[in-house]
Design a protein that fits this description.
Elements: H1 7-11, H2 13-19, H3 23-51, H4 55-66, H5 74-105, H6 114-125, H7 131-150, H8 153-182, H9 185-192, H10 202-214, H11 222-229, H12 236-260, H13 273-285, H14 291-325, H15 329-350, H16 364-391, H17 394-401, H18 406-441, H19 453-457, H20 477-484
Helix pairs in contact: 2-12, 3-4, 3-10, 3-11, 3-12, 3-18, 4-5, 5-7, 5-14, 5-15, 5-16, 6-13, 6-20, 7-8, 7-14, 7-15, 8-12, 8-14, 9-12, 11-14, 14-15, 15-16, 16-18
């Protein structure tokens, strides 16, 4: 549960469900989970349990057993690289949420409107004069992660997750009850659970596939290392199915909670991502009784979610480093943590000091997102599917999976051989196409920008950009926030879009942006 429940459950799934048919989208999403991504999850966990190692040594053992080319070792190494990069910017998001716990408790959002909330976020993240404060929160969050991981698998990781994950679920239920009491739960149910067949389309299927693939921590060695820690008696497939269903339930509860406390017709006007979580939510929660406590509790929940995600992303990296070097766990965690912090600075500084420094039209953060989401994670998933589907013997595959009903074994075999490689390749291509279209919107002069943007995005709105809000380093954040509010809401342009000749002012991910990356 700690590995699967992430920020996408809070800032992505509710919006997708409300946009693509409500309950029908949830059913479509579950179908994508069960038929496409669940077999890959089972495979990764089974590989780890069979080998009793992380993904790198697990692949080494299977390659030797199947007498295959050593080139397949790239699967394990690329998955570790993907986990490292995703962890580097996941920790940046966690540091923002951690700061917001204290901001909420200290009453900084009391009586705040959207302009003031945007200014608070800009002052923390995008103000070049305050980047050292942002770095301080980043270090604080990483120390919380590293401290637990250094204690070991049983005394640290397992003990923490056994307390934190149920605690986070209880806190979510309390916040859901509060939202239902003070909000309009009927409108939330209509957005999230009611059937709206008129909103269902092929775009709904694409959104369900994207979310099902990117939200479960696949392609980063997480499931392999967790599988290696399970006992041989663990009912692996049943446990994974339970986790998938619980992850979906958490996403539904989060969606109901968010829409129940919305003040404008139970809708956030299509907002998601940064603008939903760090601007609209604090403004809305500030109107509730005891708002300081409520805001602090909501962002404490966000911190717990990102914290458990970070712990699970760190584990395969630490496991690989220990298997490679034989170093003690505490030293391994320290060295890996220092590396993650240094890599995270590339994303952190992309929001402020390096905001205007672009390569090919994008900041370092956007390139990291594109490399992981568009290339590394899909490539690892495809290679695992091809290796297990075509290179392993049926006997070795059956031994690895364990006792399995004949129907499931047949579905698994053909999904890994044919369905999953094709579907994931399509997801990776689509992800890359949208990201490259976004680079063109940022003034990129690369060759692919010679094509009309509509040909790349298939008529969709070009993704909004790299930075979470409009304030540029040369402007005070308050002035930029006021400028955004000068036009009526119905007349405002999509965030990240400015008049011709103006500077590019990217904001949070919006309607057609893609920002999953398992965070």
């Amino acid at each position: 549960m700690g590995a699967t429940v992430g920020l996408a459950n809070l800032w992505q799934f509710p919006y997708l469900a409300s946009l693509h048919g409500g309950g029908l989208f949830i059913l479509l999403y579950l179908a994508c989970l069960l038929l496409v991504t669940l077999p890959l999850m089972v495979t990764e966990a089974a590989v780890g349990r069979y080998s009793r190692h992380g993904i790198v040594l697990a692949m080494d053992g299977l390659i030797r057993s199947a007498r295959q080319s050593r080139a397949w070792m790239a699967v394990g190494r690329l998955s570790i690289l993907a986990a490292f990069l995703v962890l580097s910017f996941t920790a940046v998001f966690g540091s923002i949420a951690l700061a917001y716990v204290f901001f909420g408790a200290l009453g900084r959002f009391s009586g705040a409107g959207e302009v003031e909330a945007t200014g608070i976020l800009a002052g923390l993240v995008s103000d070049p004069r305050q980047y050292r404060v942002f770095m301080g929160w980043h270090i604080f969050f990483l120390l919380l992660v590293l401290w637990v991981s250094a204690q070991g698998v049983v005394r640290g990781l397992e003990r923490a997750l056994r307390v934190v994950v149920p605690g986070a679920l209880v806190l979510m239920l309390v916040l859901f009850a509060l939202a239902a009491w003070h909000g309009r739960i009927d409108g939330a149910i209509n957005h999230i659970l009611a059937m709206h067949p008129e909103d269902l389309s092929w775009e709904s299927l694409k959104a369900a596939l994207f979310h099902a693939f990117f939200t479960l921590g696949l392609g980063m060695g997480v499931w392999a290392i967790l599988g290696s820690y399970t006992t041989p008696q663990t009912r692996l497939k049943r446990s994974i199915l339970a986790v998938v269903l619980m992850d979906t339930l958490v996403a539904i509860l989060a969606g109901l909670m968010i829409f129940a406390i919305a003040t404008d017709g139970n809708s956030f006007d299509g907002e998601r991502g940064f603008s939903l979580l760090f601007v609209s939510m604090p403004v809305t929660l500030a109107q509730l009784p005891a708002s300081q406590f409520v805001i602090a509790a909501v962002f404490l929940l966000v911190v717990l979610i990102v914290w458990t995600t970070s712990l699970n992303l760190l584990e395969p990296i630490v496991g690989w480093f220990r298997e490679w070097t034989g170093a003690p766990r505490a030293l391994s965690v320290l060295l890996i943590g220092l590396s993650v912090w240094l890599a995270g600075l590339a994303s952190l500084l992309s929001f402020n000091v390096w905001a205007e420094e672009r390569m090919g039209g994008a900041t370092m953060f956007r390139w990291l997102e594109l490399i992981t989401g568009g290339l590394l994670i899909p490539l690892v998933a495809i290679l695992i599917a091809l290796f297990t589907g075509w290179c392993l013997t049926r006997h070795l595959s059956g031994t690895m999976l364990g006792a399995t009903p004949r129907l499931f074994a047949g579905i698994w075999f053909w999904v890994m051989r044919l369905v999953l490689p094709l579907v994931v390749a399509w997801i990776g291509i689509q992800y890359t196409a949208f990201s490259l279209a976004n680079l063109c919107s940022n003034g990129n002069v690369a060759a692919w920008c010679d094509q009309p943007a509509a040909m790349v995005s298939e008529g969709g709105e070009v993704p909004a950009g790299d930075r979470p809000f409009a304030a540029t380093p040369a402007e005070p954040e308050e002035k930029a926030a006021e400028a955004e509010k000068t036009a009526p809401a119905s007349d405002q342009k999509p965030p990240g879009v400015e008049e011709s000749g103006g500077k590019s002012g990217e904001k949070a991910p919006k309607q057609d942006d893609i920002l999953y990356d398992s965070v």
